Amino acid sequence: xxxxxxxxxxIESADQKNCISCNVxxxxxxxxCGSCGAKQYLTEPDKIGNQWLLLKQSALFYAITLIICCxxxxxxxxxxxxxxxxxxxxxxxxxxxxxxxxWKENKKLxxxxxxxxxxxxxxxxxxxxxxxxxxxxxxxxxxxxxxxxENYYYLFKGNFFAELLIVFFxxxxxxxxxxxxxxxxxxxxxxxxxxxxxxxxxxxxxxAIIHLSFISLFxxxxxxxxxxxxxxxxxxxxxxxxxxxxxxxxxxxxxLL
Length: 257
Fold this sequence. Notes:
Elements (H helix, E strand, L loop, with lengths): L1 H8 L6 E3 L6 E3 L17 H30 L6 H21 L1 H4 L10 H30 L15 H32 L2 H14 L7 H18 L3 H19 L1
Antiparallel strand pairs: 1-2
Helix pairs in contact: 2-3, 2-6, 3-6, 5-9, 6-7, 6-9, 7-8, 8-9
């Protein structure tokens, strides 16, 4: 009878497993045993090696993105429309290239199965209201702290269809390629090496940092957290793309007005 109880104790169930040290049953996702305190290895050695490869790939994607953003932000020589065009294309290519690395897995994020126009419209309306609140908040902070307002329209002056260009480069391209890069590739990769909440928070923080605006962190992080939750809940990038587009479009309209 005793031996039967012991053997029953070490049998793993769907939501439990045995401690690698003392064989006490613990939850599958436990990192440490509650009985003996031994650290649990949640993955096999080959999976750990694969996770390390995924982390290195993610670091490369982020490093390229950060270098491009820093070059375009901090060097006066790059503050022209021609360089804006170059850096926008470089960021788009970088995001698309890494997204396509795992195309077989990622292509499902672009499907329109169960896509709802009503839901997309709701996300768009929420984005526009959020953008209005952010615009007045950031304008007040810039005037209060720096005694100036930020304006990017000067980069487009002198170009034909300047209004269309500013919408394309600040609303269309970021909405599409930042979502492919950060909520498509990066978040998807982090979900393979961390739990859901960790992946969401890490991707949101990294997204906020690349904008290189300390004063904007108060809205960039919640913005990224919200889109990441939407991407996971809806299992598609399109609602996030809609939200991102209408948010940036509203900001563009303030620039033009």
